[in-house]
Amino acid sequence: MADPSFFVGIVGNIISILVFTSPIATFRRVVRNKSTEEFRWLPYVTTLLCTSLWAFYGLLKPGGLLIITVNAAGAALQATYVALYLAYAPRDTKVKMAKVVVGVNICFFAAVVVVGLVTLHGAVRLFAVGVLCSALTIAMYAAPMVAMRTVVKTRSVEYMPFSLSFFLFLNGGIWSVYSLLVKDYFIGIPNAMGFVMGTAQLALYMAYRNKKKLVVLKEEDEEKGAVHLMGQVELGQAKVPSLKKGLSLPMPSSLPSPLHGFGNLIKALSATPLELHSVLSQHERVGAKEEHHDDEHAYSSK
Fold first, then answer.
1. What percent of the residues of the chain are helix, what percent strand, and what percent coil, each to the nearest 5?
2. What is the CA radius of gyration of the chain?
3. Residue 301 three-state SS
4. What distance lies between CA 43 and its chain's CA centroid?
5. Could you say which of 49, 50, 126, 156 has the lowest number of CB atoms within 10 Å?
6. Could you report how far apart the first and last alpha carbons of the chain are, in Å?
7. Sign (positive/negative) of CA torsion 258, 260, 263, 267?
8. Residue 275 — pLDDT band, cuts 50, 70, 90?
9. 187 or 272: which carries more pLDDT confidence?
């Protein structure tokens, strides 16, 4: 009977490769528009380094075939993304990115391989490379905390896609189970953190996924209130006759009641400053037209 860790590792490979292929849509857009637009390049460079180191770790570890396959596929995809970004990036960005790629993905990775193979031996070599891989993976899993803080601050999940959080949850969970089965804590610790982070992101998503809808509904209510306020003001202007020279004041019964005026005041206080400014501007235009009409009437009576 096959080892259960093999089947768990196969599932982990599938999930991880799905995560690695998620930027394909982004780079289709980059190629189509021949521009990298505002997309960031650093995540692809760091993921390329991470997958390369994990593939090297899989080569050093006995029985590390599934670690090699998933990370070799990931490194190949990330290298493709990096090459496409370099091809379509602006000149200044291209120069800066090329320096980082040469320094990190080529020189640093080559140094780790040379030191690991020449200077270190046996369990010490595996331990050193495992610690390095774990530390880099933990740093990458900690990156989504910025998105989580943005969600709490803005009370919106717009900048934390559900699919990314869900696959982070799945990926961390399946590789945590794999690490327990093969007793590899270098894989287990960072992926357990990823599982916790994914769970926290899903919890935040469930908590704030309807907040944006509520904000939109509130804004719509405010707009309706502003329209109603403008209608009330125009209705009041139609009821109160203009004061003409030589005419008596209107009877008190024709004036709006204090209660009606208080209701309009409450509606005014509930409107936003922009809406009130719009209403007041309209009133000034109406008042100017009435004064101009009064002047014309007085001039004609002379």
1. 85, 0, 15
2. 33
3. helix
4. 15
5. 156
6. 113
7. negative
8. very low
9. 187
DSSP string, 4-62: HHHHHHHHHHHHHHHHHHTTHHHHHHHHHHTS-TT--SHHHHHHHHHHHHHHHHHHHST
Q: Which two tokens stand for residue 99?
A: 């320096």
Kindly provide the residue ranges of all beta strands, DSSP E only, lying in 194-296, ordered along the sequence: none
Percent of the chain past pLDDT 70, that is, above it, reads 68
Q: Which of 137, 134, 116 lies closest to 60, judged by CA?
A: 116
Question: In this structure, what DSSP letter does residue 41 have?
Answer: S
Q: Is the dihedral of CA 53, 57, 59, 64 positive or negative?
A: negative
Looking at the predicted structure, is the pLDDT value of residue 289 above 70? no
What's the length of the chain?
302
156 Rama class: left (phi>0) / alpha (psi -120 to 50) / beta: beta
The confidence score (pLDDT) of residue 279 equals 41
Comparing C-alpha atoms, which of 162, 141, 143, 142 is closest to residue 204?
162
CA distances in angstroms from 231 to 16, 126, 238, listed in the order given: 59, 77, 11
pLDDT of 269 above 90: no
Chain center to CA of 103: 30
Residue type, 151: V
Residue 129 pLDDT > 90: yes
* Residue appearing with tokens 């209701």: 263
Q: Which two tokens stand for residue 32?
A: 């189509």
What pLDDT is stored for residue 223 in this prediction? 56
